[in-house]
Design the sequence.
């Protein structure tokens, strides 16, 4: 079967292979939700109104010469797999993918910034970057927000702040996230304890990949749960205060795995390595789980560290839409599992 | 939101009517409601409410903790996007930015539960100058709502009626600004 070679060499800014604290912290993300004052929100908009909203926004962007170096993708004219690819690359939300009618996304050339139009909110802009750099990313997206503000009348209320479709986003419209890899805390079942602690601090932790609560590949996303009553800087500080604690916790448990559970830890990593190299049929969930154990093995000196970039790439490529893009087709799940096994074996050799 | 008939007074009575198999939503002031046959025939309201009853409905809906009965009868509907308060409660989503003004009396409680706060304290749009002007009347509104609640609790109905008229006037002005 012929492979789409370009896909295999892709790199993603939010999945770096070097950087500070990379053993635990992968990337940072900032999202701003904005709406226009004189257009109904998506849920109450007729197809025609959605069209008008999108045309108005894009028209004003064009007049202001904003986003000229961005790629504009109209979701209504993309095929399902292309849309799913954008979700797997974290460039659009699952809601945006599953939405209806006029909706699109603007993507910066280096894929660090994307602006969704007609998601739940009229405009949702996000920036993704490697490592822990929330303030830095905020400054960039804040400047972009200022640029848009000059040309589009935002819905703003003196008391409630930026108005959003969902009351949970009102105020700043800001969601600040840090993505962690926490395999040790997951294996040793410490995550519940962390969830409980974070709820009290009005922070939330969710899986970075996949749907629902399960965290595929043990990747978690820490975010602020509240968006009103605190300034943007305060919300960022709320997260930054907790990040070192989570990092320390994961690192301590890793040390413990090596010092007290060396044998079983070694077996766990070796089993993951052997399974993935066997080429046997495998689901994306299972492969993410094994890749996670291999990544852990790299930081525990069980696996050679030069494997890291490849393991990172595999985390992305084993996802269904990427796999179908690589093998140039649409396949039923069982067939995908076989192709996935083959691909992983091939790349790990 | 103004009364659809006289376009003078603030609408206080919201009800629907089925005409030619089509549901029509109405918003009337208390005076026009009294004279409206569809309203009188609405099975939900077997007879028009007295002004006193309407006032108490208004007040309980303006109060921070509206009772379930008050919310049931007082179901404001957005004239821009069509969102009603019931629908908002059910779906947990606003239909447009104007709903924030329309449902404002109900929102403090919701925002306190969600965010532990009821007031934004972050960035403002650069077009902030034109937005700032709205701060004064809205803060004044909040104050009036409080006074109104107090008056009702003390059973000073005459004063309550005066304050409620003042509120309607202010809200009318705000709609005018937009
Ligand atoms: Zn009237
Ligand atoms: Zn509305």
Sequence:
């Amino acid at each position: 079967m012929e492979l789409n070679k370009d896909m295999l060499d892709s790199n993603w800014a939010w999945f770096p292979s070097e950087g500070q604290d990379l053993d635990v912290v992968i990337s940072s993300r900032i999202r701003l939700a904005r709406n226009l004052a004189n257009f109904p929100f998506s849920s109450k908009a007729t197809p025609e109104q959605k069209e008008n909203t999108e045309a108005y926004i894009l028209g004003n962007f064009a007049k202001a010469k904003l986003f000229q170096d961005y790629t504009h993708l109209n979701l209504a004219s993309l095929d399902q797999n292309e849309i799913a690819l954008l979700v797997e690359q974290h460039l659009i939300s699952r809601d945006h993918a599953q939405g209806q009618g006029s909706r699109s996304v603007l993507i910066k050339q280096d894929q660090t910034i994307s602006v969704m139009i007609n998601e739940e909110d009229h405009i949702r802009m996000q920036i993704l970057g490697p490592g822990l750099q929330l303030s830095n990313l905020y400054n960039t997206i804040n400047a972009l927000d200022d640029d848009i503000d000059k040309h589009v009348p935002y819905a703003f209320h003196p008391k409630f702040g930026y108005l959003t479709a969902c009351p949970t986003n009102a105020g700043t419209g800001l969601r600040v996230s840090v993505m962690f890899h926490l395999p040790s805390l997951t294996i040793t079942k410490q995550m519940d304890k962390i969830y409980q602690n974070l709820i009290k601090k009005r922070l939330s932790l969710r899986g970075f990949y996949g749907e629902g609560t399960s965290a595929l590949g043990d990747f978690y996303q820490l975010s602020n749960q509240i968006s009103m009553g605190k300034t943007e800087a305060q919300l960022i500080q709320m997260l930054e205060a907790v990040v070192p604690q989570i990092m320390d916790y994961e690192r301590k448990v890793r040390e413990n795995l090596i010092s007290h559970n060396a044998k079983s830890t070694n077996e766990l990593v070796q089993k993951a390595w052997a399974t993935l190299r066997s080429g046997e049929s495998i689901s994306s969930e299972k492969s993410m789980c094994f890749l996670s154990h291999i990544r852990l093995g790299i930081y525990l000196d069980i696996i050679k560290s030069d494997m890291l970039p490849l393991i990172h790439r595999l985390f992305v490529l084993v996802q269904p839409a990427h796999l179908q893009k690589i093998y140039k087709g649409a396949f039923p799940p069982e067939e995908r599992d076989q192709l996935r096994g083959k691909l992983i074996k091939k790349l790990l050799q | 939101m103004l009364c659809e008939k006289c376009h003078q007074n603030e609408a206080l009575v919201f009800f629907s009517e089925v005409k030619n198999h089509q549901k029509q939503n109405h918003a009337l002031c208390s005076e026009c409601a009294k004279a409206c046959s569809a309203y009188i025939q609405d099975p939900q309201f077997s007879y028009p409410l007295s002004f006193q009853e309407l006032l108490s409905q208004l007040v309980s809906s303006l109060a921070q903790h509206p009772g379930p009965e008050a919310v049931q009868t007082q179901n404001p509907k957005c004239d821009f996007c069509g969102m009603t308060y019931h629908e908002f409660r059910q779906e947990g989503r606003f239909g447009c930015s104007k709903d924030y003004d329309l449902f404002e009396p109900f929102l403090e409680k919701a925002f306190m539960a969600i965010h532990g706060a009821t007031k934004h304290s972050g960035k403002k749009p650069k077009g902030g100058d034109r937005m700032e002007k709205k701060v004064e009347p809205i803060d004044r509104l909040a104050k009036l709502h409080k006074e109104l609640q107090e008056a009702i609790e003390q059973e000073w109905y005459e004063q309550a009626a005066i304050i409620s008229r003042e509120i309607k006037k202010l809200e009318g002005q705000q709609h005018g600004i937009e």
About this structure: The two ends of chain A are 18 Å apart (CA to CA). The pocket of zinc ion (ligand 1) is lined by residues B 3, 5-6, 9, 28-29, 31-32 (CB under 6 Å). Chain A has two domains: 25-252, 261-348.
